Amino acid sequence: MKFASPWLLLLLLAIPIWLWWERRMAQRGGLKFSSVTAARSLASVWTRLGPLLLLALRGVALALFIVALARPQVGQRESKVKAEGIDIVLVVDVSGSMQTTDYEKGRQRVSRLDAVKDVVREFIRARTNDRIGMVVFGTRAYVASPLTLDHDWLEQNLDRIRLGLVEGNTAVGAGLGTAANRLRDTKAKSKVIVLLTDGRENVPTPPAMEAAKAAKEFQIRVYTIGAGLPQRFVSVMGQTIAAPSDLDEELLKQIAAMTGGQYFRAADTASLKKTYAQIDKMEKQKVETIVYEEWRELFPWTLLPGLGCLLAAVALGHTRLRRLP
Prior knowledge:
Strands 7-6-3-8-9-12 form a 6-stranded mixed β-sheet, sandwiched between helices. A 3-stranded antiparallel β-sheet has the order 1-2-13. The chain folds into 2 domains: 97 residues, no CATH class; 201 residues, Rossmann fold (3-Layer(aba) Sandwich), CATH 3.40.50. By secondary structure, the protein is an alpha/beta fold. Strand 8, helix 7 and strand 9 form a beta-alpha-beta unit. 42% of the residues lie in helices and 26% in strands.
């Protein structure tokens, strides 16, 4: 409920002052008796409470009239959201290197895949109006979820992703190509692939750059993410030494540049979250909200009781409660 002229309700603050003034004026009048005993003999409940009742009725009537002037209204508000749809396919590497525990969650070491799943879940929950699909890849690509608006079901499929779901090599081109095929025929205004990997393409079937060319032809923008620390530790002759990361950053940069996307490096959990948050901001859909309002006037529901109180006060004032001059 709302009031069309809520500022008129300020007049209610004047009612206590008016009641006090009326009461004071009523007490100035009176009749002189030679004896108090005689005056008391004429007193009754009506004579004592009657003036207060009449004053209360007039006060209530005045309050109801003020509320009616403010025009109370009740209605319905309906909103329609018109959004330009964005279709997004999340491509996640599940090769053997994704089991490396160089990410943190709650001060505990977790695998790269577990960290990615947590961040991807937050990304999905932030995109309520978009269709999202999911592809995982190792030696070959696998569609974990087709494009869907049922994000609860999508999260269930995300939970099922695990290492060993497909063979453990890194076929970047297969993952990218499968995702592009899912988007090629959609009618969305914008088509996006977010591809995350921590390794180097060692199964070029198809080559990643050929898949990137296809994505460009289908007007698909590809954001690439390189996961993991810039170096890895390997054992040589019984000794652990640092070696450069196996990640092919140059390839990921080329894929992003060719399709109009962008490359990000996510070396830890914080940078991984920041990366998906940046992509989320860059790929916001245009939303147009149309609001319909329908209001019904309620002032008769306060005006009529107010008139009733006023008529009751007038009628009672002409009976035993009649005030003598």
